[in-house]
Every structure is written in C-alpha cells, then in structure tokens.
Design a protein that fits this description.
Layout (H helix, E strand, L loop, with lengths): L1 H35 L5 H35 L12 E4 L3 E5 L5 E3 L2 E7 L3 H6 L7 E4 L2 E8 L1
Parallel strand pairs: 2-4
Antiparallel strand pairs: 1-2, 1-6, 3-4, 5-6
C-alpha cells in the first residue's frame, strides 16, 4: 500500500514536470516566432541562437523525464525482496526511502519518505542491503529496520 502511494507520487511528479516542460516549449516557440519577425542583424541572430540553445536544453530535459516515465513500469512490477533494490521501500532509524527517482519527499501517515535514485549516494549505499545492515553517510550511521 505504501509502495503504491509512493509510486503514484512519483508518477504525478513526473507528469507535473512534463506538463511544465510542454508549457515552456510553447513559450519558446512563441519567442522564436517573435524573434523571426524582428529585423535582421547581429542582435537578431544572437537572440535566435539563445532561443535555439534554450530549446535544445529543454529537449534534453524532456527526454530525461520521459525516460523516467518509461521506467515507472519497473517500479509497478516490483516484487518484495529481503534485499534493497529498485522499487524497495527502506526504513532506517534515521529516515525512510523509496528507491525510485529523485523527486520531492512524500508524507504518508505522518512519515516522510525520500524518493531517491539508486544512483544517488545514499541509494548506492542501500542497494543490496537487508534488515539489520548499517550504512554510514556523512558520518551518520543508519540501521536498516525494514525493507519491502
């Protein structure tokens, strides 16, 4: 149940970000059209180049989040294991984590769950661990209490 809420949280966040990117894309296209109507010259060319760079950067960000969206399938098909892996919820004596994507934290029943990537520093430390194992991050030792 907690995993489903966390998965839904991640899905909503990704959709929210992608919608924001689509809005920004529309703004960039309008700016590009406006710039095209300007008079020719160095200022005009610089403006078009800046808009084009912003458009390319936005395209890369969109690709990244679309890839996150595709990876949601792996999280949907998560099978509980005694070892931490992608899709696991990990409770420690310090914090709670959902090994998924780096999105904002999620509060469920007054508990904060940090949605983190398996490639994040803490994610790397947690992967493959089980209940009773410890990790040390920033000189703080955390004991794994639960993995599901």
């Amino acid at each position: 149940m907690i995993q489903q809420k966390l998965l839904s949280h991640c899905r909503s966040y990704i959709v929210e970000i992608l919608n924001g990117f689509e809005n920004r894309k529309a703004e960039i296209l309008l700016a590009l059209e406006s710039e095209s109507k300007s008079s020719a010259g160095d200022k005009h060319e610089t403006g078009r180049a800046m808009i084009q760079l912003e458009r390319e950067k936005l395209g890369e960000q969109i690709k990244k989040f679309e890839l996150h969206q595709k990876h949601l399938i792996h999280l949907e098909n998560h099978i509980n294991s005694e070892y931490v892996k992608l899709g696991s919820v990990v409770t420690t004596n310090q914090s709670n984590y959902y090994i998924s994507f780096p999105v904002r934290e999620c509060i469920i029943k007054s508990k904060i769950y940090y949605c983190i990537s398996a490639q994040s520093p803490i994610g790397k430390l947690l992967l493959g661990k089980k209940v009773g194992d410890q990790i040390i991050f920033n000189n703080t030792t955390s004991l794994i209490l639960e993995v599901f």
